[in-house]
Amino acid sequence: MNQQKRQRRIYVHGAYSVTGTVRRLRRAIMRIEGISATQETAGHDRTVACLAAWSADAKMSLLREAITGALERASMPATIIDGTVFCCTLPMTHFPAGRSLVRSILQPIGVSGPYLHLGGHQCSGTIAAMRQAAHWLTTRPYSHVLVATVDVVDFTTHRTLGNGVIQGDAASAVILSHAPAEIAYVGTHVITDASRYDMSGAGDELSWRYFFTLRSLVHALLVRHGITIEQVAHVIPHISNPVTWQRIRELLQFHGQILLQREMETLGHLFGTDCVLGLMQFVAQHPPTSTYALALTYGMGASWGGLLVQAQ
């Protein structure tokens, strides 16, 4: 019985993330097209169209690099993948022909099997995709499932966030498998409830709704697996800004380490990719056995996500 239970356990392999910034990409595109700042202002429509076209190509390059990087880091051949869950953490309307483009990446790499595009969770998309991958591993005769995420920016409306943080340009990939690894997947919890997302509220009222929903999510996830917040040594934040995370730390009464703290002001808002980036940092720290880490996300899709992992 104990052996069967160990065989059913799911592990995290090859977490790999490729990051940049929209600002960097945008300047590079302007150089390629020979567009000056003055010309950009004068020919706004042409510039946006140019950026959107180059953006799709750039995102695919990042996604290809993330998938191959995850396979190499996990020392796994592409042919071992039984299925793929892909998540675009902004709506597919911002990413024309996204599904066919992703398939055009998977096939040359050698990844086959069922393919699922998971949408609607936005910033919590990566965690929702990992939940789906774990479901496949539990209910189907699969041994390895690839989770791939790309973050897409609509250049017409999403140049920067209100707090001045540049929105991220990133892709990530991770493999969930029954094969033992340094990090075990413990579980996820996702709350999607548009009634809790009320933009008519101002300032503190909106924050109140978000923060208390996040606390409810953390409580549900930890209780389900029989642990307390005191047992969580690391939190992988949804990259937004340090002020927000100070409020979350106080609300959760969390006294451990917040990973990616320094990256909040340099990488920009990474939508769903920061979860995998945080897993990379967690692995790099070689945490003691049984150490828990908790990844948290929240965002405009009225969706909140929590991922619990444990060092082995």
CATH topology of the largest domain: Peroxisomal Thiolase, Chain A, domain 1
Distance between the termini: 20 Å
Elements, N to C (H/E): HEHHHEHEHEEEHEHEHEE
SS class: alpha/beta
Q: Can you describe what's shown?
A:
The chain has 312 residues and is α/β, with parallel strands linked by helices. It folds into two domains: 2-177, Peroxisomal Thiolase, Chain A, domain 1; 183-311, Thiolase/Chalcone synthase (Peroxisomal Thiolase, Chain A, domain 1). 40% of the residues lie in helices and 23% in strands. It has a ten-stranded mixed β-sheet, with helices on both faces. Helix 5 links the parallel strand 2 (83-88) and strand 3 (115-118). Helix 7 packs across helix 8 (242-252).
List the helices and strands and how they pair.
Blueprint: H1 2-8, E1 10-21, H2 22-33, H3 37-42, H4 44-73, E2 83-88, H5 98-109, E3 115-118, H6 125-139, E4 144-150, E5 168-177, E6 183-192, H7 204-224, E7 232-236, H8 242-252, E8 257-258, H9 274-284, E9 292-299, E10 303-311
Parallel strand pairs: 2-3, 2-4, 7-8, 7-9
Antiparallel strand pairs: 1-5, 1-6, 4-5, 6-10, 9-10
Helix pairs in contact: 2-4, 4-5, 7-8
